[in-house]
Amino acid sequence: MADLPVLELGDDAYERGLTHGRSQRTQIAENIDTYLARFAAGGLDAETARKEGENWVGIIREQNADYAEEMRGIADGAALPLGDISMLNARYEITFGLFGDEAKANDNPALADDADGCSTFGVMPEASANGHTIIGQNWDWLAGVHERCVVLRITRKNGPNLICYTEAGIVGGKMGVNEHGIGLVENGLVSDHDGRNAYEKPFHMRCREILDAETYDMALLPIVSTKRVCSANFVVGHADGEIIDIETSPDAVSYIYPRDGLVTHSNHFMDPRHGPSQMERISTSTLYRANRLDRLLRAHVGKINDAVIQAALADHFAHPNAICRHPDERQPEAKRTMTNAAFIFDLNARSMRVANGPPCSTPWELHTLDGDAVEQAAE
């Protein structure tokens, strides 16, 4: 029995959203409250945040009609204003804009709140035990959204089938794999250029468009084809043995390729061409998480399997702000983060293993495109 809710969705975008909204009505409302509290903690009041959500409605409709229809279905199904659902779907742009402001204002290291902490990895076939291409991550984010997330399994004729994970109310998917063996995981980044381009394609729409792609080149296009509001890092893999880590800022893109079959990333830029990196000013754990994850995995190159990855993702060095993160009670409740979920995508198997919480103590579930979902003991 899977702990995470799994939504079985089909061809019609509006109907997908309607099912999502009806089944997750309470969780969506709670996610809205969580983000309004986080916005307020960063100095953005609820009225202004909701108005910003309304501003995004037309922008999203112009950029991707299907995404907009799915979003409209969520709003109708949950009986909530479309502007509130749009605010959720643009929450990356709103929240990471606040992170940039907080980083620039943070002249006192004691005020650092470790705002975000995703740690991602990619394992090439020559480094894995089974010869498969594997990507994954710990998704560290606001503790308030924990257990308010869903798995979407989309089976359709007008696009690739896919399985993905998303927050209730966000079209998604955030992390996922499709039937063509294209998979996605990602990290948040902050540069001092964030916010210079208003109302470009939002982050979560880019994520869905990557998973909607039928070929690897088309999966990369949503990342690089237009300017961005905020910075982000995308790790895009293909079952045939390709992984590219793509760092993006509003006006620049750079690329990191696996070294000896392995790549890892956290929340600071590796390429200086993006300008001053800001996340480490409020999330200093980024400076060691990627390197530590690299060492933990690299010690097993050629033999990396689920057990090796699960152990690495459960690492507690520098607890509570470790690879496996736990809420830091010293931080304001609205800003507390944790490992909400951990992921291992076997792109050849088109499968998603997920621990719905800190992987040190949470059972792993196996989800596939065929609809299986079984629970595994945490290793």
**Strand order in the sheet with the most strands:** 1-4-5-6-7-8-9-10
Q: How many strands appear in the DSSP assignment?
A: 15
CATH topology: Penicillin V Acylase, Chain A
Kindly give the count of domains. Answer: 1
Major sheet, described briefly?
8 strands, mixed
Tell the overall outline: globular
The helix fraction, in percent, is 25-40%
Question: For this structure, what is the CATH class?
Answer: Alpha Beta
CATH superfamily descriptor: Penicillin V Acylase, Chain A
If you average the pLDDT, what whole number results? Answer: 93
CATH architecture: 4-Layer Sandwich
Describe this structure in words.
The chain has helices at residues 13-23, 25-41, 46-63, 65-78, 82-89, 91-105, 203-211, 216-224, 286-298, 306-313; strands spanning 6-9, 119-123, 134-142, 149-154, 162-167, 175-178, 182-188, 232-238, 242-249, 252-256, 262-265, 337-346, 351-355, 364-368, 373-376. By secondary structure, the protein is an alpha+beta fold. The protein has one domain (111-376): 4-Layer Sandwich (Penicillin V Acylase, Chain A), CATH 3.60.60. An 8-stranded mixed sheet has the order 1-4-5-6-7-8-9-10. The chain has a 7-stranded antiparallel sheet with strand order 11-2-3-12-13-14-15, with helices on one face. The longest helix is centred in the first third of the chain and has 18 residues, at 46-63.
